[in-house]
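INTERNAL AUDIT FORM
Audit reference: QA-55
Scope: verify that the stored structure record matches its stored sequence.
Auditor: D.O.
Record contents follow.
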Amino acid sequence: MNTPAFPHSNSRSRPIGIGGTDIGAILGLSPYKTPLELWSELVSGDSPAHRDLLHLRYGQHTESFVAREYERVSQMFTVKHEPTLFHKTHGYMFGHVDRFVLDTPDTPAVVDGVVTAQSLLECKTSSAFSKNDWGEPGTDQVPPLYLVQCAWYLAITECERADLAVLIGNSDFRVYTIERDLELEGLIISHAQHFWDEHVIGKKPPEPINTQDAAILFPKEVQDLSIQASDAILQSIHDYKQVSAKSQALSDECERLKLEILNFMGHAEKLIHGSKTLATWKCAKASKRIDTKALALAHPDIASAHTTTVLGSRRFLLKDAT
């Protein structure tokens, strides 16, 4: 099946703007990225090198299989879509649609730069542990992260519906249908517009929602800079100490109980009760690692040539001021 020409065909590399996988982060629905992490990427233009993108690579790998399964069960045709599509009014809105759905293989998906297909397809994989996050097949009861992504693509393409095909746990294949909802679409675009104007164009960071966000926002200290604690912060320090003490007490109790169980197991691989396995205590698979100290001693020139300086992360220490 030949792929027709699409507008804004800049390859699948990321353009400047907000994409379909970003809107979930803006709305606080993404388990992979916070609003501040997205802001940092958009403002700096760089994606952090430390982020593990395995879930994205796996999704791309399985996309073709899921699309073929969709064609088999729906008796419809799909056309792969590589180039980036942009919203006709909001130029910062873009999307990479997996496929367009066609009645016949010869039906064009785009005519004169305008999407004429009525449906699009999103291909997903999901863990068996998340099976309860999905409703009955054929409905629009999908995880909110995917619902807003489909709504985003429907806004850009102006298709009437999006089919979401998902393979759950490598054994459960389902198809869901999300009809275009202009009210939901308007709410999503409103949030995206605010994020774009306030945070990206205005360069004002969103509020951090975890300690990793704070480390991104304030990566390096200003030497010799001090700041006076407010009454609110003094209370936070007091509360932090109390919670930390409780956490340490719970941690110590957990360690005591774990030691009791391990001593009982001894050399046993499994702890059982009747036919039930209650716990296992096994060695992890052996792995090989480079001994960097030995390498530096044996081949200092090689070690030096492949050594880089990495900015150390800031370490928070609470001092005893009493």
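Auditor finding: record pair retrieved intact. The longest strand covers residues 119-126.
Action required: none
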